[in-house]
Each structure stands twice: as structure tokens, then as C-alpha cells.
């Protein structure tokens, strides 16, 4: 099932977020949200349990509203495929502080491991680049992940997109908060905004 | 060539209307900063004003649901948004409209209506007919403006309840208000 040369998703996410500082992190529904929760709960985490295809656009809205704060979207290949048009929208707006990372296991892990388009045909790095995100790359080692994590702090050189081929193994779920009102107001509070 | 002349005439009629200017002023008053849109002829004058504004950012989308997600992110980051779209785009938003229930954020959309009032194109009719129902089933309050003289009040009321009371609201701008699109004379 699992291949030795593929990265462990939890290791990838904990490395990316190890020195996140003030970064805001948006997690796509499913395993990406569990990975972010596993790396440690944080006031600036926006966890999704639905709204498939919307993670990058939420990141874009945040990035445009908070141009001095790094905004990081971590999502899966299935979620990214559903919101592929949003890469064109990001490519047009070009927010310097937005980083998008796709954890690509080439399958829909949450629903039984059905194969996704990235396993055979779709190249998300190519899509992102063709949509105008010039800094689009594949990351395949933990060293590259760590370097990308550092780069995310630079709020002037984005947007950047990275695809990481990860091991398919279905890990134990680490459940994040799922109360939208709590998550949203906690994040807004961390940015200095009061409830209405 | 003939078609182009007709299109430009239609365009100039739309641009002569004063209600898009009133909408722009209301959006300015409420300090709306992010304006995601999928273009529509009925919104063309407002979109031009937004793109020329120093405080608002017009954000073209590939599909309308992107705008719902964008507005959540904007509000999380401290900014208000408004989504501009045509009635056919409302169907593209349905699952993403869940965000308004989950997060209770200030959601306002201004929808130019097609598929009613002398419509020529049958393809516009099904979605135009279900637009209000789709919103209501999704928990969105619906207001409608049909007469140019009522646009200001209706949009102001919609913006007030969306931004002040976190009541997700759609304002439908009737095809009768916008003018029926002319395909042939």
C-alpha cells in the first residue's frame, strides 16, 4: 500500500508549520484538516469540514485583506481539483503573501481511497503555472519542505504553489474544532477584530 | 456589424441608468472592500466603477461559488465583500452557500435577473425561475428591486441587514429594471 519514497503527510505539515509565526492557515476538508490539527491547534487556523473546492478562495480573501500576514492553504488533490478555477483567480490577483500546498495522495482518502485525476493525468503544478502562478513547483524531500516553509514567511514574493506527493496511508483522524462560529471569531480575534 | 451596433446601443442604455451609481455609493458607505464578480451586462456599469475605485478591489471569478468562499476569507481578515452575479450563477453557488450558515458572516449578493420579463433566451428561464427558491432554501433572505426609484432603498436595506445583523441577503435586480436583452430587432 505505502511506498517508501513518498513523504508522510503529518511530517510534511508539521515541518511546514513548525516555525509558522503569525501565519494564517486554511485547511481543506478531510485529512488536510486533521494534519493541521495534528501539528497543533492554533488561533489562526481556519479548519474546513465541508465547502469542497473553496479552500484556495478563502485563502485569497484572507490574503487580500491581510497583505502583511502570510496566508497558507493546505489541501488535498481532490479538494484542489474541485476548485481548480480558483488557481486562475489567484493567478490574476497575485497576492504576494499567499502560499498553496497540495498534499497529493492521488486518491480520495476520506471516501475509501478512490483514485483521483492526479494519479494518471492531471498535473496540478502545470495547471497552477499555466494559471499565472509563476512560482509553482513539486516538493519531494523534507529538505525542500522545510525550505518552502521558510519561504512562506516572505509576503512579497508569492503567490506560490507546491504539490507534494504523499503516502496514501490513511492515518488516525485528529479532529479539529468544527464549530464555524468559534473558529471564525477566534481567528478574527487573533487579528484584532471584535465580534459585531 | 449590425449585431455590434445593437450591442453598443444596449450598452449605452445600461450606462445611462443612475441606479448602478446609487449601488456604488451604498457599497462605499458600508466600506465594502472586496467585490468578487462574474460579469453580467446588467452589472457592467457597477463593475466599471468598482474597478476604477481606490478602496474596492474587483475580483473576477471563474465561477460564482468562488465568490462565496472569498467573502468568508475576506471577513475572517476584517474586510466586507459583496458578490455580483447573474441569476444563472446562483445555481453554481449552492453547496458553498453552506458557509453562510456555518460561519454566520456578513453575506450580501446583488443578482441581476434573467429568464423573466420578456426573455428571448429559453436557456435563461429555468435558473431564473428558481433563483429566489434556491436562495430561500439555502437560508438566504431575498429582497427584490424592480423600479429604478426603489433600488437605493432596497440595496441599502439589504446591505444593512447583511453587514449589521449578519443576515445573509440576496438582492434581486429584476430584468424589468435592467432591460430585456435584445438579440434581434
Helices and strands, with pairings:
The complex is a heterodimer of chains A (196) and B (185).
Chain A: H1 9-17, E1 24-27, H2 31-38, E2 45-47, H3 55-65, E3 71-76, H4 77-82, H5 85-93, E4 98-104, E5 107-108, E6 114-115, H6 124-130, E7 135-139, H7 142-151, E8 160-165, H8 180-190
Parallel strand pairs in A: 1-2, 1-3, 3-4, 4-8, 7-8
Antiparallel strand pairs in A: 5-6
Chain B: H1 2-16, H2 19-29, E1 32-37, H3 44-51, E2 57-60, H4 65-76, E3 80-81, E4 83-86, H5 87-90, H6 98-103, E5 108-112, H7 125-137, E6 141-145, H8 151-165, E7 169-173, H9 175-178
Parallel strand pairs in B: 1-2, 1-3, 4-5, 5-7, 6-7
Helix pairs in contact in B: 2-3, 2-8
Rg over CA atoms of chain B: 16 Å
Roughly how much helix do the residues of chain A carry, as a percent range?
25-40%
Biggest sheet of chain B: strands, sense, closure?
4 strands, parallel
Kindly identify the CATH topology of chain B: Rossmann fold
Instruction: Work out the largest interface and the residue count of each chain.
Output: A-B, 36 and 34 residues
- Give the CATH superfamily of chain A: Thiamin diphosphate (ThDP)-binding fold, Pyr/PP domains
Please state the overall shape of chain B, judged from the principal axes of the Cα atoms: globular
If you average the pLDDT of chain B, what whole number results? 93
Helix share bin of chain B = 40-55%
Query: What structural class do you assign from the helix and strand content of chain B?
Result: alpha/beta
Amino acid at each position: 500500500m505505502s511506498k517508501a519514497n513518498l513523504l508522510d503527510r503529518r511530517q510534511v505539515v508539521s515541518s511546514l508549520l513548525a516555525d509558522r509565526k503569525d501565519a494564517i492557515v486554511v485547511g481543506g476538508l478531510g485529512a488536510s484538516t486533521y494534519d493541521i490539527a495534528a501539528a497543533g491547534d492554533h488561533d489562526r487556523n481556519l479548519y474546513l469540514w465541508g465547502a469542497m473546492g473553496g479552500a484556495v478562495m478563502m485563502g485569497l480573501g484572507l490574503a487580500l485583506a491581510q497583505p502583511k500576514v502570510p496566508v497558507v492553504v493546505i489541501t488535498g488533490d481532490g479538494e484542489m481539483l474541485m476548485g481548480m478555477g480558483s488557481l486562475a483567480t489567484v493567478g490574476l490577483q497575485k497576492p504576494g503573501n499567499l502560499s498553496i500546498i497540495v498534499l497529493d495522495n492521488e486518491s480520495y482518502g476520506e471516501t475509501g481511497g478512490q483514485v483521483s485525476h492526479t494519479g494518471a493525468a492531471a498535473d496540478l503544478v502545470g495547471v497552477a503555472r499555466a494559471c499565472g502562478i509563476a512560482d509553482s513547483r513539486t516538493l519531494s524531500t523534507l529538505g525542500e519542505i522545510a525550505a518552502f516553509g521558510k519561504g512562506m514567511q516572505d509576503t512579497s514574493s508569492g503567490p506560490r504553489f507546491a504539490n507534494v506527493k504523499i503516502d496514501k496511508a490513511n492515518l488516525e483522524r485528529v479532529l479539529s474544532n468544527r464549530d464555524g462560529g468559534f473558529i471564525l471569531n477566534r481567528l478574527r480575534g487573533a487579528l484584532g477584530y471584535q465580534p459585531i | 456589424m449590425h449585431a455590434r451596433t445593437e450591442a453598443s446601443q444596449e450598452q449605452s442604455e445600461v450606462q445611462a441608468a443612475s441606479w448602478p451609481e446609487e449601488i456604488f455609493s451604498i457599497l462605499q458607505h458600508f466600506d465594502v472592500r472586496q467585490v468578487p464578480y462574474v460579469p453580467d451586462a446588467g452589472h457592467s456599469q457597477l463593475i466599471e466603477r468598482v474597478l476604477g475605485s481606490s478602496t474596492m478591489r474587483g475580483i473576477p471569478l471563474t465561477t460564482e461559488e468562488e465568490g462565496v468562499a472569498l467573502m468568508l476569507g475576506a471577513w475572517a481578515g476584517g474586510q466586507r465583500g459583496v458578490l455580483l452575479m447573474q441569476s444563472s450563477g446562483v445555481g453554481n453557488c449552492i453547496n458553498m452557500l453552506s458557509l453562510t450558515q456555518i460561519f454566520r458572516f456578513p453575506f450580501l449578493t446583488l443578482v441581476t435577473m434573467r429568464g423573466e420579463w420578456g426573455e428571448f433566451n429559453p436557456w435563461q428561464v429555468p435558473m431564473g425561475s428558481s433563483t429566489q427558491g434556491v436562495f430561500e432554501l439555502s437560508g438566504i433572505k431575498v429582497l427584490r428591486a424592480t423600479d429604478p426609484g426603489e433600488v437605493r432603498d432596497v440595496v441599502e436595506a439589504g446591505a444593512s441587514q447583511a453587514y449589521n445583523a449578519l443576515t445573509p441577503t440576496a438582492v434581486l435586480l429584476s430584468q424589468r429594471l435592467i432591460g430585456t436583452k435584445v438579440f434581434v430587432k
